Amino acid sequence: MVEQSKNSIRISGSGTATGGMYDTVRIDGTGQITGDIECLTFTSNGSSSVDGSIIASEMTTNGSARVSGHAQVERFVANGSVMVEGHVSAQRVTNSGAVRVHGNLNAEEVNCTGEIKIGGSCQAKSVKVTGSFHIQEQLHADQIDITLHGNSDAKEIDGAMIRVVKSKFSLMSLLWLTRTVPRLTAGRIEGDVVELENTEASIVQGKRVRIGKHCEIGLLEYEEAYEVSPEANVRQVRRIGEG
User: Fold this and answer.
1) What is the DSSP letter of 242?
2) Are 85 and 102 in contact (CB under 8 A)?
3) Cβ contact 7:40 at 8 Å
């Protein structure tokens, strides 16, 4: 059933509605929006698709959702599976499921406790991941805090403060018959303060760098100080400014 008025759209069960400008859009069940949509709040509980772009103050999805265009929102909340085929621009991104962005992700704050895949670059002021990520190009943020629960990768990682650690064992993980050790793979990691565990990178550069256990680093370049764990492998160390 579709209830569509001048100010709102509500789909209960299954249905299709046309895009446009609304105050609220709510889907409980299976719903499709044809065309671009602009609203204050977009809420999807179930399965939804937007055949176009979306502009909203808040977008919340519980279940699965697809946007064929771009998403420009102040608050992006994903609880489930979300795919955006264009770019995402947001003030705050909160993900506790699986998010895939084919283009770039630009945000003030990204908080991920699931998995996020980005076909382009991710740029933010703060990025916190407790899970895994896959970024085809660059991850850039002032503050980057990663707790690895699965294999992750990015072409380049750049920030002021970069911290990567492996997740601690939980009761559930101890019950697994097999368990792979999560690992971050990157071509280049550069920051002012860099602390790494379980990381493989060709180049790591920073003012103060700490290479923790289970790291494989090709070249470490530091400006002020560095530390390497006995359980890490760094093939070459060079102080910036020295030959």
Assistant:
1) -
2) yes
3) no
Residues 6+ away with beta carbon under 8 Å from 207: 192, 193, 222, 223, 224
Please state, in angstroms and rounded to a whole number, the distance separating the CA atoms of residues 78 and 220: 37
DSSP codes joined into one string, 49-67: EEES-EEEEEEEEEEEEEE
For residue 86, what is the DSSP state? S
* pLDDT, position 175: 44
Phi, psi of 120 (to 5 degrees): -115, -125
Residue boundaries of the structural domains of the chain: 1-103, 139-243
Over residues 138-196, the pLDDT tens digits come to: 999 999 999 998 899 999 999 999 999 987 754 344 444 445 678 999 999 999 999 99
Instruction: Provide the whole-model pTM.
Output: 0.89
- Exposure string of 3-34, with b = 16+ CB inside 10 Å and e = fewer, is ebeeeebbbeeebebebeebeebbbbbbbbbe
